[in-house]
Amino acid sequence: MSGRGRRGRRRRGPAGAAAEQPGPAAAPEPEAACASPRWVSRFCPQCGRGVEPAFRFCPACGGRLPPPPLQEEETEQTAPAPPRASPARPSAPARPSCRSPRKARPGPAVPLPAESVLTDQGGRQWRLVRLLDQGGCGLMYEAQSASGTCPQKQRYSLKLDVKDGRIYNEQNFFQRAAKAGTVEKWKKWHFVPFLGIPNCVGFGLHADSYRFLVFSDLGRTLQSVLNDGLHLLREKAAFQIVVRLLDCLEYIHENEYVHGNITAENIYLDPADLTQVTLAGYCYAFRYCPGGKHVAQREGSRTPHEGTIEFISLDSHKGAGPSRRSDLESLGYCLLKWLSGFLPWSEELDKVETVVEKKEKYKGDVKCLLRLCFRQKRPIPDALQSYLQQVMALEYEEKPDYEALRQLFKKPLEKMKASAYDSLDIKMVP
């Protein structure tokens, strides 16, 4: 736009005196520019710098900008403007958006062929053997070392995803909170023989398009075992798994994170050693307590419904950062499904609002939830009822009593003359 034309028009308005100033005064003062809806450009009211119409904050001083003005039809008395489609004020949809566009999520990773070789940041090479699983948070491969630094015949699990996918969040979790030395110290301090935190042995980028993580062999997912025809777990096996997962969650929570997506798809069993139970799948991990300060409960502060809809907590449904109670709530839903085979919302997962309404309803009536799920087919375990009642009563920032929750399941296991750290009471094929 021409400064000369602007000065000519401003000379007729109340700011005409300012427009007659020579030299630099040709640029309008910030207050005048922001007050007049006839200007196409915008200016920061704090520092006076010109900004783009869609900006919400000034790139120069960082100050919040007022909503952009409507662009009115300009008239000229001396020379009529050419006809336009609509001389009236534009309707509301024509207003420039004040919100920054949400960054589009990257698409799913395209599988790489078997025998592809990937090099991690330490220079070690890994050969893909076969694709094991393909889900919303990446691809899981069986892999072997292609370097002389690791046993050639030992199996590894390699997770692959697009470079900027959720695997980046998972990598951050392992670098911050799940180093092998930290895990070993925690096991000694808490006198537990096993702790199912994956051992991440390498990570890197491939072809500038993929990011990958390499783990010691994880085994098979619990969901794949259930899909083999098992469907339901015996109480003994379910209680063993829950105690082991409570150990994992206590470790994660003490290291400032929550898992965010407890589901059988993220629980791994080793067919060759049924004492091993591993909690993997940290793509939704959330740092709920950075620097020791718990985040505030703010619904809508995150994308709602992130994770596996059937099992995520109400906090995650509502877009609040998941907290410790969120993981325990999700674990309760999983345990209920493993023992009864049913959740009231499992057949309506495409209707998210219905899922949320039912979870809200039964959170306050655990006994009704249990009666509905078991339907007198099996006795309702007292341990499950007590667990759900205690977890559903937790406050957002409240620290759970992990040992008390573990004891709910350890005591019936003792009556069965079993330990949570024995081989799992599950029959499975490799």
From TrEMBL:
Segments forming domain Protein kinase: 126-409
One term under GO cellular component: nucleoplasm
One GO-annotated biological process of the protein: skeletal muscle tissue development
Any Pfam family the entry gives: PK_Tyr_Ser-Thr
Example of a GO MF term: ATP binding
Amino acid composition bias (Low complexity), ranges on this chain: 14-32, 86-99
Descriptive protein name: VRK serine/threonine kinase 3
Domain of life: Eukaryota
